[in-house]
Write a structure and sequence with these properties.
Layout lengths: L1 E3 L6 H9 L4 E3 L5 H13 L27 H12 L3 E4 L2 H15 L8 H12 L3 E2 L2 E3 L8 H8 L7 E4 L2 E4 L15 H6 L3 H31 L9 H5 L4 H13 L17 H4 L1 H23 L7 E3 L4 E3 L7 H28 L21 H16 L22 H30 L9 H10 L13 H13 L9
Parallel strand pairs: 1-2
Antiparallel strand pairs: 3-5, 4-6, 6-7, 8-9
């Protein structure tokens, strides 16, 4: 069980809680600010002469339309219903669970005016695995992730859909769900915020860190199998251009190759191509992007991003723009491009391993000509890399006005978040193809051995993908290579 307190959540902690389906618990003392804020909202809404956005007014361009005290509850219900118009693919369940976690965390901070019972019902959904069905398309990344969060909240009023026993079921058919009574501002607090973007971002940041580790491990194997040189990874080179990411990448390659007799053999060539020689510089730049994005998103998941904000201590309700996701949209685009470069440089290493250089046979087959060997997986990698590049147009530079011009600049961060998720899926495929090629190339190194760590990795990998002796159906080999990456962590193969 994980107890949510006022302490900040980390990205890795959040993803771990979600991945392992750990139940949530909130101590009663954690509700103190939320309770006080809710009671304040209840009090001030008794005065119909004071207009407060989203509490007793309409929304967006209807902000100046007054709503009577008797209609406030219906206003909040209507809000959820009208905004739950997302379409597209269903959001992965893990990411929806992150949305729930981050919405709970935000509401608990006591600036949103929601009933503690509403938060408890969100926890009930999590703990009983009634996960709302949310769709990928519908948010502009400003005014909050309105459509996705409306789908997230609908089961609270026993509407919408949930994942139940492995299938999508109307919430009204789930007897365990009991509809709650929405008070003033509650509907708006539930759908206003950046939890769709932050959930995708948090998941992708953790995935990016795993893929970065894999990129280092796989490129070390490729370097060794290609009879590459170790000098570009020397610590002295990194120290005179001391970017942290570059230093970390070089250190990772040195660690993976420790004890290799192949890397220590004398070389006939003076230099390697950039895709090998500049691994620290390219992988290191990606490391920097991951860390920067993680810093931004860690702040965001521990923030309040709905509107208006209730400062009951000051007897004040302020309407602002914390829902605007520009601060997230920019690093999402940055990270998309940075991860694309891991695939871009990986494909070049794949190409070189097949080129018939450094004692390796053309296309890594014993009988090139009769056998095509690993020729076509490089085509697959090249096609995927081209697709990734096309996806790297930054979403954050776009904006289309909405709500009759009231919401006239939006971040498009939601599209950027979903795009990053898809890019990472493709990066994983390219790295899996490089691993496939590098493992095959290693068979042709006749003298000495690679490092103990890489031998351990290869031994485990060959249980998934054996050596290609002659042409065979390679689709399944590539699928197995992807599964290997998904089912293992590079750290488990490191010695000592």
């Amino acid at each position: 069980m994980f107890v949510i307190t006022e302490k900040p959540l980390s990205i890795s902690q959040s993803v771990d809680i979600t991945h392992n389906l750990i139940p949530l618990h909130i101590e009663n003392t954690t509700f103190e600010k939320t309770t006080t804020c809710y009671e304040y909202i209840q009090k001030i809404t008794q005065n119909p002469d004071t207009l407060m956005y989203g509490i007793n007014t309409g929304f967006g361009a209807l902000a100046n339309t007054a709503i009577s005290t008797q209609e406030i509850t219906q206003l909040q219900v209507n809000l959820l219903r009208s905004h739950a118009c997302g379409i597209g693919e269903t959001v992965p369940i893990t990411i929806v669970r992150l949305m729930l976690l981050f919405k709970i965390k935000a509401l608990l901070q006591g600036y949103s005016g929601v009933n503690p019972e509403t938060i408890k019902q969100l926890v009930f959904l999590w703990n009983n695995n009634f996960i709302p069905v949310v769709y990928t398309q519908g948010s502009l990344g400003a005014s909050g992730d309105l459509a996705p969060l409306a789908h997230l909240a609908l089961p609270l009023i026993k509407e919408g859909e949930v994942w139940y026993n492995g299938s999508i079921t109307p919430a009204q058919n789930i007897s365990q769900l009991q509809p709650i009574h929405l008070g003033p501002k509650e509907g708006l607090a539930l759908i206003n915020g950046t939890q769709f973007i932050t959930a995708y971002g948090a998941f992708c940041i953790e995935k990016a860190k795993q893929l970065w580790d894999w990129a280092n491990a796989i490129s070390a194997l490729s370097l060794d199998a290609f009879d590459g040189r170790i000098e570009p990874f020397d610590e002295r080179i990194q120290n005179i251009r001391p970017h942290e990411g570059q230093k970390q990448a070089a250190q990772a390659i040195r660690t993976w190759l420790q004890g290799s007799t192949w890397i220590q053999q004398s070389k006939k060539h003076v230099q390697d191509p950039y895709s090998f020689r500049c691994i620290p510089q390219v992988h290191g730049a990606t490391y920097t992007a991951i860390k920067h994005t993680e810093e931004i998103f860690t702040i965001e998941i521990n923030s309040v991003s709905d509107n208006p904000n209730v400062f009951y201590q000051d007897n004040t309700v302020l309407s602002g723009g914390n829902f605007h996701a520009q601060v997230l949209a920019l690093p999402l685009d940055y990270l998309s491009m940075a991860m694309a470069e891991l695939a871009n440089i990986s494909e070049r290493r794949i190409y070189l391993l097949l080129s018939g250089q450094r004692g390796l046979p053309m296309f890594l087959t014993d009988s090139p000509g009769l056998n095509s060997g690993l020729m076509i997986p490089q085509y697959v990698a090249a096609g995927i890399v081209s697709e990734i590049k096309m996806m790297c147009m930054p979403n954050s530079v776009d904006s289309i006005p909405s709500s009759n011009g009231q919401e006239d600049h939006v971040s498009m961060g939601a599209n950027g978040a979903v795009k990053l998720f898809r890019i990472l899926q493709n990066v994983e495929k390219v790295l899996a193809i490089e691993l496939f090629n590098a493992s095959q190339a290693a068979f042709f190194r006749k003298h000495g051995n690679t490092s103990p760590a890489l031998q351990k990795l290869l031994s485990a990998y060959r249980e998934y993908v054996p050596k290609v002796e002659k042409d065979r159906f390679l689709h399944q080999d590539l699928i197995q290579s992807i599964k290997f990456i998904q089912n293992h962590k590079p750290s488990q193969f490191l010695i000592g």
